[in-house]
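Rotation project, supervised by the postdoc (A.L.). Task for the rotation student: set up a whole-complex structure prediction and record inputs and outputs verbatim in this book. Inputs entered:
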Amino acid sequence: MAYSPTIITDASPALQINTAGGVTYLELLQALGGYYFSVRKLHIASAFLNQLFEIIQYNHYSSDGNTVSKSLVPNVDPYQKSPAIIMDLEQDGVILDGRSSLAFNIQPNENILLTLETDEVALSDLLNMIGESNVKTVFNATK
Amino acid sequence: MRQSNLTLVIKNNTASVIPFALFAKGFTSVNARTAYIYDLIGESFSANKNQISILVRKLGADEFEFFKAPLLDRSVAGVAAALNSLGLASWIVVGTTVVGYSDALEFGDLDIYSVGQSLIGYGGDLVPTTFVIKVNGVVRVNSPENQDGELAVKPGDVIEVSGTSPEESILPSYIRNGGEGVAESVPPGTSFIDTFTVENGVDYFLTFATGDR
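Outputs recorded:
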């Protein structure tokens, strides 16, 4: 059986992600794993109200390695006119560690401003907890 | 612990809905089983009711590209053909035992890696524009309700897959596992065609290919 589907591609990038503060999205991605972010709140401001109705799937792994998906449902007031919302995720345990993701649909021609209020932990923080001369301490401990 | 704010501006430049996984690190970790984008239901692209689309990001790039191919046949073979036609690499999706049919199809897991990362253990060099696409799990026609009483693929059906392994391939370009644990590979730059008979109760999976876009 032979198929010859037609290929359609876009001339311009389909999706662009810009970040504030000069750190690119790619750099942010690469930092995950060394840096961990526990998300407390998620601010979403979009061009159109429809975007706010998109459910966000928090995909991550359980301790036994299985994929786990949790739906984060924006509590949108159907009568609200401003296409913006703040989601409180404190109870949802959303942690960005490089093995998790936030999956959602992006509406056509949409422009979303996404701000995540997070608590940040870096691997180096653990080293600093050992003491001031931490490198020496670790070095001696591994002798 | 410090408090910090991450601010992102995400822009969809298309007239279509894009399913997207934010903070997914599929390209930078061999073991990051990131569900990348699969949207096999597309309804708005170029008047094609059924289509396969896939969102990819080149290694080292911030921007995403969206590739789309219409699904001409709602069968596993049709999916394989449409995905192959995307030209991301010479890769193939081989299907499973069966199921009925509806508008939606479902991948078990779809991972996309950069070859540079996935060559760990193979001693290969980085090839920045090369993708490895790997399907872990089954490609399944997803239909709880059988809409018209016909099965898209059923036990006993013969599935045919074909393609050309890219010249630049370092890894074997085509490996299929399923049934009795068949594994095959094809040297770079050769065309191949393969057929197998769908058996009841057997999942066919693990397709693996490399190639330049």
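Student's summary: Residues 1-8 of chain A have pLDDT under 50 and may be disordered.
Supervisor addendum: The CA atoms of residues 129 and 136 of chain A lie 13 Å apart.
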